[in-house]
Amino acid sequence: MANLYFSPEPAELRALGLSQYEIYLSSHLIQTLRLGIYMNKKLNNKAGPLDITHPGAADCEAYIKSAFSSDMLSDRLFPLRHTGSSMRFVLAHLPVPGDASHLTALQIFQLCVWRTFAFGNKEHLLQGTFEGNTKPGLEQLASTIQHWGNGALKLPVPAYGQLQIIKAKIPIMLSSLWDLSEEISSIARSKSTPPTFAALHERVLNKRIPSIPPHGLIAWLLTSDFFEYGLCQPPSVRDLAEHIMKSGTSGPTGALKIVADETDQAAPATTEGLEHVLTRVFAVFEDPTEHTPTIQQVVADCKSVQGRSLTVVDMEHALCKISRQNTRAMAGKGRSKTRGAKEEETKENMRDNGGPEHNVVELQIKRSGDKK
Predict the structure, then answer these.
(1) List of residues 6+ apart from 75 with CB closer than 8 A
(2) Interior CA angle at 242 toward 162 and 300, to 5°?
(3) pTM: predicted TM-score of the whole model, two decimal places
């Protein structure tokens, strides 16, 4: 197993009663969540120094340095969902209400605009923030967004890797997102029980909004934001397994590949197989026992930081950060200038977008017996 700074002792991992592949995946998730807790303390100037004698300390330091270097990298690298720069902005400017039925269509539309066009850029978040309680003119809003970025034809959203939105399509995107917001607001007012994550995710996809392709990253993240605001239930493990297998998004699939390489065992090749592994792993965090004190503390600390219990939304977010830790660790060992490392990071950025429209490269998970 890699030298993970925040991983529990081997005896605690063995007490989980999981397969070797599941233990390694659990170890990486625990490492990532604990790293996120530490980074949140550092954000609030409450973190002590890392033990530099630990073999994993240098990798952590390199990762943390990158995450604090810009708003865009903060969004891409902070392991806890609420702690990235843009999400902190969103939660500060639109606090989560006690009752989702109180959210207006305008407030839901605001979430859509922030998430789709502005994540990773504080200036764009501010310029895309609505004033007052009336619907903004969509033509003026489209014009504002179309002026972002240096290119005349495409708007890059670097928080999502190589994603570029065709500027000519922004007006129809805004119109569709407004219609979606009105629909979700109506559902929230009329139903006592929020819809499932899958149902609301499907509603987003059915709008066929340009630059939000089926099973792509933005649709998942936008629906995850809706969960944060009580507009739907959290995703199930099955939802996540289907998302990973259908999208091929680089973060989670990269994490599965890392564990496959470390254990020399095949990563799950089907939705059912992946659901089985993730269910067993996530159960560790849902009901930690006295035999797993590190995990008990992680669960408690994450709830303290985010104000809610860990869910599958957080696990998807953490899976993404496992592969990014690995990429940063490679760079920290002096390989970032090699062609191979550069190509791998470029592929990671391209795959994050989740659709052929954005030149996505499918990640092929290496399995036991594959040619090297």
Answers:
(1) 84, 85, 86, 87, 119, 120, 159
(2) 85
(3) 0.88
